[in-house]
Inverse folding.
């Protein structure tokens, strides 16, 4: 009977546990592209910060912390996540509310939380992992596809933190957090009819969003996106300079440390949101494509793991975490290449920043846990 | 056991769920790949297809071609004394982007607390700030810092983020107002100037020649702008220099001007309005050019308050007006030697012919009486029997009324034109006026009236329509000094560059007078100064004022030019006239009369008598120029 259930859980195929994974629960197929991305990321970051070793050191430590967190996350059984998902969500919500009242403001956005005994972190980044976990928790034992009321609840789980993040304001992260929740709902098997219907309903709401929820600086970004030359020294500056950096890199790039746009500070935020422009300028089209291929490998492996997961929770979590990660990449590259208005979204595992990288690595730890613990009851 | 009963009593179909998930997952995966493909296409467009466009943009960002100003050529006098030089001054600049949290307003306040910043300077600063500009580029706040001001700013530099002191070259005129009208001055380039000038050539230039030599020789003084290609960062800071094509300094210029004589002439005029021009006859070189009142040209370089400029430009005494080359006056009796030579060379009179001067002149068939109004009522009886020589040294008006009438205007005008009257004979004097040398055509053309014989009578004594500049009268003196073999007056002695080379062509020598005529006329002009100790009414007109104790022989002629018309039966009473209506005093001279080294014209506006007012000034200048030379020859 037990074997039969495992047979069912494994999608009809009999699988034996991979002995290599038993100790660390890491998935090499996911690990290798992730490490490659981080390697390229650190190299380009070193160039983007004008070869400042202390910043490189700082980021390496953060990635190392993330890496350890990933190993730990991979060791934990998925049912731990299932059990603690609502608790994590509650903690997340409380810290987001705390940000509204006590958050630290950096560059006009109130995103950070300075708690005693903890390093400064962004609760919104953690929500990128917590929201899909919670939505998956909510849906995993219901009859799928979910009923309308369940969809509404699931979406609220994502929308409430999304709104709190938009207050900071941080449109990029808000989109990603809500997107992660929406992805879970999509993956849960909601009927396409409903998707179409809700799209038709939401689109007319966009003007309302524009008038009531977007603040002046976000609106200005949208305006200048459509006409960067209207304010070349102000809001249009980043778009002009990042496309210039990318375009001037050409096929093979100007060479590592040789990017003039970043070296001479024409490119703003060259070590954070616009680091892809540094990759493009110094390593060229080839460098950018290499990085995108690595991200696609992560995506493919993540989706593969999701499909292979034995239970609904695992499937939904692995699928939405992986897709959120990739949407993260897509959003960043689209901003940097001037396809969408500037929305502060870092390039996963490459941009300077701790919370984002650690959250993403924990996310992949969970994905690996789902994969390496499948069949274990 | 994974199958369980869910609320609603429906069995959860795990297999169906897994199948649905499979479809969803791969659909979304496909969608993600599709979006990734769009990104790749976009990147291909940017990085491969449009690479060149962005390459250019990136280079434009990074590379700045900065014009490097060329040093302006120096101006020296004939002895190598500096008349105009470039001095380095510190200027205070503010980079708004670097003021940081302090802000522009607070920074300016802080600077004002340390050194004096005028309201107008702050106003100008905000004007420049409002204009479109590159970020991180300094905006000048105060243009000329004194040493101690620059030091104060440097010491407090750490408290003033975004404040910097930079060095610029500023024109300086060591002689100040003494040389102003001769050397001229530069002024800050205006947008009007840039429309007129070659913008690329003046890309780095702050000043352009405005007056005098500075304006006339602008091209050769300016030099060639240099360029440096530099790599700059977004703050406009120069990271490194990639390429430099050095500027070429403007050519230096040496003038005929003699600083010592210039200063002397300036002082000799004192506070009187007037002008002095001294010329070296052999070369035509201008030794001194003075116009008073004058102004300090250095004020035009570094800027002055609006009130100060108003006081200069609106003054009734016209300090900005160069009387020496632009002022046009009736020459009065200084014109008589030309009339005399014209008449002699035309055969209208001879040196022996005499007439009787009874103090008045009347044209045949006319009732109008021309009085010799230059004399007081006591000798209204005239000069008696006069020949040409006596008519010169006694300055008989009646004699020249008669002579001019016999000579006729056209012959007189044509002859006088050879002396450079009625035209600008100078080679390189900026904005020199032409004066007026009237004739029948001129009067008909400008006044639409016929020329009357009465006009000729007036012209015979240098009155009427005839107008000359001090430069022209100094040239006339030089023409006499060279016995007609004159040269064009000029400022330039030598220059560095090809553009500064003057034409070598000579004006045609004066046609008509014989060698003897010249000598006799010059002899008569010597009598003006040296004929003395005679009976009353037989001395030279200037002898009483300057003729005593002269160690050399000087030839001269005084002139007293009428400013307002006096009707014939009125008496001229100096004291009754307003200052600005009094007669202009002239004196022209050259010395030593046999081998002249200096020719001079002195004008004192509304000064009164030429002999009494202008002649002593001329003697003072000639003395100080000649006596050292005479002393060294012994």
């Amino acid at each position: 009977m037990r074997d039969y259930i495992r047979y069912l859980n494994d999608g009809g195929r009999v699988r034996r546990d991979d002995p290599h994974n038993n100790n660390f629960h890491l998935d090499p197929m996911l690990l290798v592209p992730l490490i490659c991305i981080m390697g390229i990321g650190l190299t380009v970051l070193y160039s983007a910060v004008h070869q400042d070793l202390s910043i490189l050191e700082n980021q390496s430590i953060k990635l190392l912390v993330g890496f350890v967190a990933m190993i730990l996350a991979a060791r934990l059984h998925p049912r731990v996540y299932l059990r603690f998902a609502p608790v994590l969500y509650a903690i997340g919500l409380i810290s987001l509310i705390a940000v509204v009242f006590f958050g630290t403001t950096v560059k006009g956005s109130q995103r950070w939380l300075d708690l005693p005994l903890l390093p400064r972190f962004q609760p919104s980044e953690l929500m990128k992992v917590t929201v899909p976990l919670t939505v998956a928790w909510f849906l995993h034992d219901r009859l799928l596809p979910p009923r309308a009321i369940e969809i509404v609840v699931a979406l609220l789980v994502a929308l409430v933190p999304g709104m709190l993040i938009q207050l900071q304001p941080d449109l990029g992260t808000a989109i990603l957090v809500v997107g992660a929740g929406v992805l879970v709902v999509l993956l849960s098997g909601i009927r396409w009819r409903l998707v179409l219907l809700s799209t038709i309903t939401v689109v007319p709401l966009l003007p309302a969003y524009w008038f009531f929820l977007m603040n002046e600086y976000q609106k200005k970004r949208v305006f200048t996106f459509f006409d960067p030359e209207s304010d070349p020294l102000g809001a249009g500056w980043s778009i002009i300079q990042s496309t210039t950096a990318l375009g001037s890199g050409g096929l093979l790039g100007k060479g590592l440390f040789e990017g003039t746009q970043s070296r001479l500070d024409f490119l703003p935020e060259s070590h954070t949101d616009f680091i892809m422009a540094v990759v493009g300028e110094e390593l060229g089209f080839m460098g950018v494509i290499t990085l995108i291929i690595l991200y696609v490998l992560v995506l493919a492996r993540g989706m593969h793991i999701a499909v292979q997961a034995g239970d609904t929770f695992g499937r939904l979590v692995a699928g939405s975490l992986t897709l959120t990660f990739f949407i993260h990449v897509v959003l960043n590259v689209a901003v940097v290449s001037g396809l969408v208005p500037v929305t502060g979204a870092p390039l996963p595992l490459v941009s300077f920043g701790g919370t984002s990288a650690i959250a993403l690595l924990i996310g992949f730890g969970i994905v690996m846990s789902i994969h390496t613990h499948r069949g274990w009851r | 056991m994974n199958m369980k009963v869910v609320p609603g009593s429906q069995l959860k179909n795990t297999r169906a769920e897994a199948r649905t998930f499979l479809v969803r997952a791969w659909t979304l995966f496909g969608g993600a790949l599709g979006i990734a493909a769009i990104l790749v296409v976009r990147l291909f467009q940017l990085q491969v297809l449009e690479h060149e466009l962005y390459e250019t943009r990136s280079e434009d960002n990074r590379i700045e071609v900065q014009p490097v100003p060329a040093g302006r050529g120096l101006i020296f006098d004939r002895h190598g004394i500096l008349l105009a030089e470039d001095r380095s001054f510190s200027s205070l600049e503010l980079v708004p982007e670097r003021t940081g949290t302090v802000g522009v307003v607070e920074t300016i306040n802080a600077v004002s607390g340390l050194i004096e910043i005028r309201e107008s300077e702050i106003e100008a600063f905000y004007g420049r700030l409002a204009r479109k500009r590159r970020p991180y580029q300094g905006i000048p706040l105060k243009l000329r810092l004194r040493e101690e001001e620059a030091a104060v700013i440097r010491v407090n530099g750490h408290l003033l983020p975004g404040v910097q002191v930079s060095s610029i070259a500023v024109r300086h005129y060591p002689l100040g107002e003494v040389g102003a009208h001769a050397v001229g001055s530069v002024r800050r380039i205006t947008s009007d100037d840039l429309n007129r000038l070659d913008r690329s050539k003046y890309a780095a230039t702050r000043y352009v020649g405005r007056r005098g030599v500075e304006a006339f020789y602008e091209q050769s003084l300016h030099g060639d702008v240099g360029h440096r290609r530099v790599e700059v960062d977004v703050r406009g800071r120069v990271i490194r220099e990639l390429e430099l094509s050095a500027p070429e300094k403007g050519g230096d210029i040496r003038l005929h001007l003699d600083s010592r004589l210039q200063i002397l002439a300036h002082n000799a005029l004192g506070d009187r309005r007037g002008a002095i021009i001294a010329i070296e006859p052999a070369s035509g070189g201008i030794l001194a050019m003075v116009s008073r009142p004058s102004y300090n040209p250095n004020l035009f370089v570094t800027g002055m308050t609006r009130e100060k400029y108003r006081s200069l430009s609106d003054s009734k005494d016209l300090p900005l007006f160069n009387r020496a080359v632009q002022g046009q006056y009736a020459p009065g009796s200084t014109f008589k030697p030309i009339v005399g030579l014209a008449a002699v060379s035309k055969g209208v009179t001879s040196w022996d012919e005499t007439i009787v001067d009874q103090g008045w002149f009347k044209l045949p068939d006319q009732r109008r009486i021309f009085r010799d109004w230059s004399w007081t009522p006591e000798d209204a009886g005239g000069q008696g029997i006069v020949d040409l020589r006596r008519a010169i040294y006694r300055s008989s008006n009646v004699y020249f009324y008669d002579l001019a009438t016999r000579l006729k205007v056209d012959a007189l005008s044509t002859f006088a034109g050879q002396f450079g009257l009625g035209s600008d004979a100078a080679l390189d004097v900026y904005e020199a006026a032409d004066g007026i040398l009237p004739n029948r055509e001129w009067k008909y053309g400008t006044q639409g009236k016929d020329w009357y014989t009465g006009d000729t009578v007036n012209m015979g004594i240098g009155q009427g329509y005839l107008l000359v500049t001090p430069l022209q009268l100094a040239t006339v003196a030089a023409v006499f000094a060279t016995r007609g073999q004159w040269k064009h007056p000029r400022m330039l002695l030598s220059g560095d560059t090809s553009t500064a080379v003057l034409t070598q062509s000579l004006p045609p020598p004066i046609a008509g007078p014989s060698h003897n005529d010249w000598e006799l006329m010059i002899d008569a002009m010597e009598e003006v100064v040296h004929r003395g100790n005679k009976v009353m009414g037989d001395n030279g007109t200037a002898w009483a004022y300057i003729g005593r104790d002269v160690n050399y022989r000087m030839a001269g002629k005084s002139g007293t030019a009428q400013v307002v018309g006096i009707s014939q039966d009125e008496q001229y009473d100096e004291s009754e006239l307003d200052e600005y209506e009094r007669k202009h005093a002239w004196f022209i001279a050259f010395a030593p009369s046999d081998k002249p080294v200096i020719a001079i014209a002195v004008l004192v506006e509304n000064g009164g008598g030429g002999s009494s007012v202008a002649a002593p000034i001329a003697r003072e200048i000639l003395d100080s120029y000649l006596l050292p030379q005479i002393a060294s020859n012994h």
Observations:
- The first helix of chain B runs from residue 14 to 49.
- The first strand of chain B starts at residue 5 and ends at 6.
- DSSP finds 23 helices and 22 strands in chain B.
